[in-house]
Amino acid sequence: MSKGLIPMRNGGQKTARVETLPQFMETLAGLKKANESAYGRLF
């Protein structure tokens, strides 16, 4: 049984990483926009 579970586990980790990467990029883009708007208000 353990032999069958290991591939599923690895596949789940890979899909999780693929799903979180776009979210991470979106957060970075959001932070960039927030910083730009903040600097625009200050200067």
Keyphrases for this structure?
single chain; 43 residues; mainly alpha; 1 helix
Question: How would you summarize this macromolecular structure in one to three sentences?
Answer:
By secondary structure, the protein is an all-alpha fold. It has one helix at about 1-40.
Task: Describe, in plain words, how this protein is organized in 3D.
It is a single chain. With 43 residues, the chain is mainly α. The protein has one domain (1-43). It is built from 1 helix and no strands. The longest helix is centred in the middle third of the chain and has 41 residues, at 2-42. The radius of gyration is 19 Å and the shape is rod-shaped.
Mean pLDDT: 71
Instruction: Kindly state the number of beta strands.
Output: 0
Cα radius of gyration in angstroms: 19 Å
- Overall structural domain count: 1
Backbone shape: rod-shaped
SSE order, one letter for each helix or strand: H
Helix content: over 70%
Main sheet makeup: none
The end-to-end span amounts to: 63 Å
What class would the helix/strand composition place it in?
Answer: mainly alpha
Q: What percent of residues are in strands? A: under 5%
Unreliable residue stretches: none
Q: What is the overall number of helices? A: 1
How would the blueprint of this fold be written?
Layout: H1 2-42
